[in-house]
Design brief:
- By secondary structure, the chain is mainly alpha-helical.
- The protein contains twelve helices and no strands.
- Helix 2 packs antiparallel against helix 3 and helix 2 packs parallel to helix 9.
- It is globular.
- The N and C termini lie far apart (43 Å).
């Protein structure tokens, strides 16, 4: 339970740390329970989107409001990782340069442009999905968030940490998952997908949702291979970037599949 609390403290801005005493070593296992925070952020986005639609906001505005709600809940933690990742891998020609740029608190032009393009693609694809799905598109907030976080969490199982522990931003490195923690994360990540397939009233075949879930897995494996080649491991920024890119790949895949169904 302390590791789960540590995960919510780390990945959200909920003030749980003020009322719960969590040992520092528990934060080494937060990535294993990352998909659990996806249930919270995905649920928040769904609630905000449905509330905005019920108040007769335009669907595009509702999507933006949902996106902003996740930014506020997470403190833009993952987006910060994405900008550092793009800056580091885009501007660094050597392993040492890439790691140094990612650790720098300043954001370069690569990171800014990458973040702008990401937000545009995310917003556009979600908006199209809500329009194509006959009103049931809000379920993608649950599906894509948790599942993509589970896919991204496997980075720590596939790669070593690229820096020395004392050089990391949080002064700790994530531990590889035990079989029990692996299964707990997998259940959390796949639960929204399973619930939507079993109980959801969607206007698209279940095979489309299940088939689209392969895209984040492929994206994670490709990015893991790229990181291994460039910096011989991962960093915390890399984990955040992998999550957002996995989620985006799922959204874009669903957009294409739903459009031609």
């Amino acid at each position: 339970m302390k590791e789960i609390l540590a995960s919510f403290i780390f990945f959200t801005r909920l003030p749980l740390g003020r009322v719960c005493n969590v040992p520092a070593d528990s934060f080494r296992q937060v990535v294993a329970y990352w998909p659990l925070s996806g249930l919270l952020t995905g649920g928040l986005m769904t609630a905000v989107y449905l509330l905005a639609v019920s108040l007769h906001f335009h669907a595009l505005i509702a999507v933006l409001m949902a996106f902003i709600s996740r930014l506020l809940l997470t403190g833009a933690l993952h987006e910060d990782g994405l900008t550092d990742f793009i800056d580091g891998f885009g501007g660094g020609h050597t392993r040492e340069q890439a790691l140094a740029i990612m650790k720098d608190s300043h954001t370069g032009s690569y990171g800014v442009l990458g973040l702008v393009l990401y937000v545009m693609l995310w917003t556009g694809s979600v908006f199209l999905l809500t329009q194509q799905s006959g009103g049931s598109g809000y379920v993608i907030f649950f599906i894509c968030d948790s599942w993509s976080k589970w896919c991204a969490s496997q980075t720590v199982n596939l790669l070593p940490y690229a820096r020395r522990e004392e050089d990391s931003k949080i002064k700790k490195t994530y531990k590889r998952m035990s079989p029990l923690r692996f299964c707990a994360g997998l259940v959390s990540g796949i639960l929204p997908v399973a619930c939507c397939l079993l109980f959801g009233r969607l206007s698209v075949p279940a095979v489309i949702i299940a088939g689209g879930a392969v895209a984040p897995v492929i994206t994670m494996l490709l990015l893991a291979g790229y990181m291994k080649r460039r910096i011989r491991g991962y960093t915390g920024d890399c984990c955040g970037a992998v999550f957002l890119l996995c989620e985006l790949s799922y959204l874009l895949t669903l957009t294409c599949l739903w459009r031609f169904t």
